[in-house]
Amino acid sequence: MRILNKYFLDGFTTIVNPIGNLLESVHVHPHVVTVAGLLLSVISGIFFWQGYFLLGGVALIFSGVCDVLDGRLARNTARMSSFGAILDSTIDRYSEIAVFLGLAIYFKSVYINSLIILAIAGSLLTSYARARAEGLGIECKIGLMQRPERITFLATGAIIGVIFDGIFNTDKMLMKIALLGIAVLANITVVQRVMHVRKLLKTER
What is the pTM of this model? Predict the structure, then answer.
């Protein structure tokens, strides 16, 4: 089970498919899209750092689009490779850290930064748990809070949060709630994956 259901994810994929078709038609290499996603994440982090949450959220969404399209391009243009997979995974981690770093500099709060550290830990360990499981020959894509959910939480907290702050005069309350959600649910996802692997290994024995 995960927070974003199949219909939401399929709907998002349908929306970005025309962009993917265009990139394929002009023969853009998947690595270019991967790097573009990193640059957009860095830009998003800078916007958050400067307090431009609406722009930060928009840049983050476009970074998520790149995250979807690089894999699609690799598959559809027969450019899938082991190096491409590890490059994509590594850059995804740097992308998330860039966004969280921008938020940490903006808030300058021990409490919020503690949530950000927990969110980073959960995000990295979610990926690590999957990698270790796949190293054991076990597919491990389960969990409540995966990368699409983390991007959605942050983008929603940023963009909708601007409207919410304007109406109710709150101080980035939705973003703080989003960070709390990621901090808790990402680490629950790590536990889910560890227990999933434990269950499968016991079944094999």
Answer: 0.95
Q: Considering the domain delimited by 6-204, tell me its CATH architecture.
A: Up-down Bundle (1.20)
Domain ranges of the chain: 6-204
The mean pLDDT value of the chain amounts to: 95
Q: Do the Cβ atoms of 68 and 16 come closer than 8 Å?
A: yes
| Residues 171 and 165: beta-carbon distance below 8 Å | yes
Residue 5 corresponds to which tokens in the numbers above? Answer: 């259901």
DSSP 33: H
CA distances from 23 to 14, 19, 74, 87, 184 (A): 15, 6, 11, 20, 37
Sign of CA dihedral 89, 58, 36, 27: positive
